[in-house]
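Hi all, long-time lurker, first post. I run a small reading group and we've been trying to get comfortable going from sequence to structure in the token notation. Rather than ask abstract questions, I figured I'd post a concrete chain and ask someone more experienced to write out its structure so we can walk through it together at our next meeting. Sequence below, copied exactly:
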Amino acid sequence: MLTSSQRQLLRVISESGPLSRTVLAASMGLSKAAMSGIARDLITLGVLHETETVYGQGRPSILLDLHPEGAFFVGISLLEDPAPMVLSDLNGKIIARENMPLSRDPEVIARLIADALPKLLAGRPDVAAKLSGLGVALSGFVDEKQANCVQSTLLGWQGVPLAKIIRQKTGIETFIENDAKAIAVSEKLFGTARDIRNFSVVSLGEGVGCAHFIRGKLYRGNHGGAGEIAHCTIEPNGSPCRCGKRGCLDTVASINAIKEMSKTEGLSCTSLTELEEEASAGNAVAIRILHRAGGALGLAIAHLIQFNDPGMILITHVEGNFDGLFGTLVQQAIEANVLPRYAGQTPIRTQRVNGDIWARGAASIAAHNFLIGPNPN
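-- Answer (accepted) --
Happy to help. Here is the structure in token form:
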């Protein structure tokens, strides 16, 4: 278990990248001697290491950075079947993968994880000795302790202490998290948002996910549902949603919704890419579906911008691209529905992702708790 001072040092480096002892001491408000003692202990533990030497005015400085092999983490996604399981290092790099069957029974899930771990760690005794946490990403609401699934419509759960159940079966410290929040933590620790204190992630897949970092911390709200745009009413009295309401964003802009609208309209499209191709060929039905979905997603993102005024919106998507009509319509709806003073002020980045994103995000949740500790609002 790391001390609070050690975690403070690791937090500074994880947010800023490699730093000299002088800069670290100033950032932490400590004397160089005190900071050097903390750094020395972390080097002994193998969590930090010395990297390049920087030459400038005065004496050269040796930069300190996280040691990639200082700790390892397991991440599991419960959003797919089979459920992917990954092993990542302290830099967020995936070094091994396995799949396991998906179950809705928490006890069965814990047993499947315990059974799959030896395969994931096979031939890596050094890694097994440094395994420092396990994370699980799922669709649903998770409590602020990252221990209990408050509710998951997809899994049919309510009040499930999943982290405790898995920890009892594996003996590994376990944390669970909502899928979009897991992606946001991954982007903050290892990705495009490392240097941004205020940002939002919108995850476009079978459903729509959303998560926010405010002042450098994951923002959960009082009940874990902050900024959950998937179930904001976007079309009053619209289509029924799995959550029990009607007209939610999820019923209009998710990939599932787009496929369902295509099927209802008699189109044979089974993906956003195919629908884009139909629209490019002048198919009026395909164009109408993309207008409805893109306009709804853009409107929701415009609301996010006015609520939070973030430094960036990152849209992750697992299929298609944002160079076609859909992406254009999302951007147009954003610009049309924010106050003129905000128009064009918030960078909108899009990122095509693969199926590893949720499992990698789950591993990042474990890494975040190791490096920084619990993240209360």
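A couple of things your group might point at:
Residues 183 and 357 are 7 Å apart (CA to CA).
The first helix runs from residue 4 to 16.
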